[in-house]
């Protein structure tokens, strides 16, 4: 069984650079450990060499020309076309000589989560390995305690929608001071009670309770694709889940 | 104070056609009731005539050409550029001679939710009116009880992220049998317990409890932009919240 890591996050969160940096980090400490799969038909440049690339089957640019679509329509259409090649991709992925398969998901997260593509990809890839999602947010979106709750909630939504374990991470850690990010549950709750009065604060507290009870999204590593910071912590967390084989389904 | 309705949903959920249909429905029963604001710089065709159109300021196509970007990069860049025009848009929107302002948000929901654009838009527009978000999902994504939980969770995330009340709706109701959609809480829970064993089922139940306690996303209207089904129910729900002035913040 392979260990499959899906890098998932909103447009601009840095999925591609984190995929590359984590792959490079794995290679630096093991022999032939990681293979790369690119699932983004709209990406222009990749900082890693993909072993499997969705663009061999379909690109957004071609779809725009061929069907006379604008960018929105072409993104949706290309993901629908990509669905047809999932069996082929799975077959090729199963044969990759690497225990770790790093999957760089489409630039627009919602095309993976809220179309057929993501759930079907996961369903098929469960045959090849154990899958964990890494849900990435940009620290520039992490200004308030409420934003951390949003990241955790997005992780929960991803976990339920795809039926996989997830780890939320804050990327581009090099761009912020560690202390600015409220990763500690106690500090987070304190800040939340200061910041959000009334219903929003109460709901946020209950979401944190729910996640803590199931030990979901409790630890949020701060990573940087640029400096390599936090990649070891991310690896340890992935390794822990892969070893426990704690599958949510 | 104006009543501002944001139509929000993942790519392909039918935001634009629902905006148009709801506007048409409002016009058919009142005099000068609704104005349209298009916030999608990537849309090719609109089935309504926008009173304010973000494409007067920026289009994804221009950004692709001018900056030599692919579709992913150009979508992000155009939303960043659009941010600069928010004050101008707000000023123009305040002067629109209509009590209802219908806002068609960007094709890719995450550009609105997880960049600066959406939160800043809402912050500014709170000066002009009371804002409610309508969170739209496609019924083809509603195959399992778990999918309804995802829609409700997405609504909660939208509500927390933007600080507005939200109503989740299932669009394209003409494409499905009403009975297929589990809108009734009791039936939903029964089906959930059949479908999801273990942790996922438990977490889903607790999410439903949380939402019910705060009367959030409890009713999910089934609407159709094509047949006009459910638009009156949606109007009544919006009206109820606007009148109560129940602001979450």
TrEMBL record, chains A, B:
Q: Which InterPro entries match?
A: AAA+_ATPase, Gpn, P-loop_NTPase
Q: What superkingdom does the record give? A: Archaea
Q: Which GO terms describe its molecular function?
A: GTP binding; GTPase activity
* Matches recorded under SMART domains: AAA
Domain AAA+ ATPase span(s) in chain numbering: 1-194
Which chain positions lie within coiled-coil regions?
A: none
Q: Does the keyword DNA-binding apply?
A: no
Keyword set, alphabetical order: GTP-binding, Hydrolase, Nucleotide-binding
Has keyword Iron?
no
Could you say which protein family the record assigns here? Belongs to the GPN-loop GTPase family.
Name by which UniProt lists this protein:
ATP/GTP-binding protein
Q: Which organism's genome codes for this protein?
A: Infirmifilum lucidum
List the top taxonomic levels of the source: Archaea, Thermoproteota, Thermoprotei, Thermofilales, Thermofilaceae
